[in-house]
Amino acid sequence: MEIPSTFRDKIIGAFREEGSSWLAGLEQLVATYLDKWGLTSLGPVSNLSYNYVLKVVDEDGNPGILKFGLAGRDFSNEVRAIEAYGGTGCARILKTDIDNGVMLLEQLIPGTMLSQLEDEEQIIEKYIKVWKAIRRPRPSDGEFPSLGHWMEGLSRYQNSKAHLDGLISEELVLKAQSYFRESSSENEELLHGDLHHENILYSDVHGWFAIDPKGVVGNPYFDLVSFLTNQLKDNPQEILELRINRLCDGLSLERLKLLKAALALSTLYAFWAVEDGDPDWLRPYQCAEWFLKWIEEDRE
Known about the structure:
The protein is an alpha+beta fold. It folds into two domains: 5-106, Phosphorylase Kinase, domain 1, CATH 3.30.200; 112-299, Aminoglycoside phosphotransferase (APH), C-terminal lobe (Aminoglycoside 3'-phosphotransferase, Chain: A, domain 2, Alpha-Beta Complex). It is built from eleven helices and eleven strands. The mean pLDDT is 93. This is Kinase.
């Protein structure tokens, strides 16, 4: 079975021994569920991240996506978030075994990623439609984690070797914590938690749909940040400010509130990347510095 080395490295970097153990049993786990659910594998998707994802067909030739992740709270949060969306704005779940970290999802065909579009204005327009489609009230069961749990990562950073090495400035960390506290309890709802370009796909049946929600509760401003800081190639600062302005206009948001939420989460993203040994940690860190610059300019 094909398990790319980059995927192995990412899993071990994020989950250490637990990840190594999971990888060791992955081939058998895949074989078990292909047989149990009557599926044929067509091979893994091209952009594997923290889950092993296969394109499959069932015994009637219907396509699907078979997804394997480390069983636990993060996986169950994703399942419950997908169920909360109920097939509106987000790909449906067809079967699941939460205890073993396995789910079968509908496949969005052709599955064009939002990142494959070239016109930034068009990208933002499509993004706004999907963002609106998946707004849901805070679940009454209280089982989803809050963004506050995520932000505890910055406290870990302050006690880490990366902090001692000065990779992320103390000023930025303190401001991130302060700005998060300012807005964390306002208008809390169910958030996707990772709504960026590669998690929005085009379907001939549904149009543009979300995939791979994290399932977390918080202020909806925070559900824009992974999109803001993603896929910044040519003229990144210019594109980032364009996104901020267009999202504020299109969603009737307060610019300063969005900038503060963006600084808080992008600083956390930078620490997560450092913690996982990801060399791309400088991208969200640079974004956090730009957010701070614009916050200070807007206050003048």
